[in-house]
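Annotated sample (chain length 680).
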Amino acid sequence: MQLLKYYLAFTSVIASTAALAQSDTVEYGPPPAWVTESERLAAPEDASGLFFIERQDALVHLDSAGQSNFVGQTYKLLHPQALQLGNISLEWDPAAGRPIVHRVLIHRDGQTIDVLEKTGFEILRREDQLEQALLDGKLTAVLRVPDLRVGDELEFAATTRTQDPSLRELSYGALFLGDVPPPGRIRLGLSWEDGQEPNIKLPPALTDIATRSSNAFDIRVDNAKPLAAPIEAPLRYALQRVSEYSDFARWEDLSAKVSIIFNAPSRLKPDSPLTEEVKRIAAASADPMERAKAALKLVQEQVRYIYVGLDGGNITPASADLTWERRYGDCKGKTVLLLALLRELGVEAEAVLANNGGLDDGLDQRLPSPAAFDHVLVRAKIDGKHWWLDGTFPGDYPPLVRPLLNYRWVLPLSQKGSALERLPATPPQLPLEMGLYEIDASGGFDVPAHITSTRVVRGVDGLVLHSQLSALTKDQLETGMRNSLASDPNWDEIESVDYRFDRMTQAGILTIRGTGKANWDDDGDGAYSMSLVGGGFNPPTRKQRPSDQDQTAPYYSTLAYSCYATTVKLPKDTALDNWGFNSVFDTMIFGRLYYRMMERRVDGTIRMVRGSRVEEAEISAEKAKRDNGRIDDFDNSKANIYYDPANKMNAWGQLRPVPASTDSVWLGSNPPCLPPDVAP
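Output written by the structure step:
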């Protein structure tokens, strides 16, 4: 779901709404009367880099009908790679009206060449990109400036208007200055007609260089100094030069407005064919959860996903009946369809706006804007507990206790208007990535081992894996894996390949069985050793920042959880007492838990588990400084097992039992990947 498209001009981004007649051609003409362009700043003799910005104006104007966006720029091209700037493109929604190109000029040796005298923009239509599940009706105009040379000054100016019929005259958007913009003159501006003044928010880094009048504000800067975001800081610290404007004063206002837009489409017509589906689901079970599961599965499996944004419908969903009739829809269409079914089935539910791109950090500190979200899903309340239902997922994904993605902030839609809601940043309960290996080397050191390798994937990667593998036949799967592993030195022969999806733990499980090398190292005098797959850790890097960055900002890590378990069946002709292994450990550093446990069993196996989970998404600068002093003591050894017929090896350390890697506990809801005192 795309609620808004940004128009990029290197250091500026403009998001907008308006309403105009349809047009699918480019217009040529002068700039509008409200535009006052900056004077050009001559490039110095020692200018370096790709290009020098002699002038770049990114201006937004609000009127009673919506919004216009002007971009005017002149670049001095200093490097051959800068010639790519001669590939000019414009993108627009034809429902918003045609873009107006004001000029494309080349300044060279005191002469001005009007590019538009000999060439023009070519219109590309992109509404047929169904292979990308995209149906947006957007148009793109491209112009390839001929005879462009290093040393030229390329000038371009154009004005566009955009439209969202859902929000009509309401405006919202952002203008920003990059952290390290190219040298030159940059201007960001917002102006408005009487009665159209929006809410405006300027960060401290822009406040000092902004000027304000009764109907406008301007930000002008020459050779802007770099202002890099603190290294490894949360995303909200990167918005140091972003100015926002919005006609929405509160998130509750946005929630109520979009709720109205979703209300009518999520109600069935009296003669809706979906009524029969509702009756079928209701007759099958009176349990609200079973009804919710059946409704969700219907939407997931019987309506294919296609992004639909025709006629500016970035926010307005197709009706539930229309989505069912054509059997395709985007997240908006699937959401209103699911809401309609749940309403008829007596299940309490609401639509919730979210951001799948991970750009929702610090949303509570920003002005309310539909552009903050790119997805919508359903949250149902069953027996007093919230469940998340996403109609865009495959049918194997049931209602979830928490969203599959780590949303920080969401906005529920309600008639009275809901507040922005923060979701807790809790560690994953189950590993997002698992590798389970059994190496049966009981035949001896020089005999190929029987190997069972199981890959378990959850979360977004698991969703992708399931989408790829669930559609394959067993023969297709086995043939594909044999071909892909043919050059892998660890496999001699692939005997079988199996894939299944576990609904209880939302895990894609790929198991490969075959024979291959056990990778023994011959240490001489009959001694051998082996490093177990996935058993070691790279040491964490120091958490430090350049002196000109915010030293108090916290450090951020993406919530992650991985687990590897290996069982080695030892050669039968060896004595168990002559086998040993290296270190085990249980430590926390930089908010991440590191755990490795190994065990020698009387059944002639050595077992290893290595787990790691980010326990804290953010740690303070003070804690990071303390942990910097612990890096030198970090155990980054591989998980090694040893055999020496001349030495008896004793177990050591605080050892705990390790189940065999083929034990079903690893695929259950509480795998022993972490110390027992750590909550799942």
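Annotation: The chain has three domains: 7-247, 253-422, 433-543+554-667.
Annotation: The longest strand covers residues 51-63.
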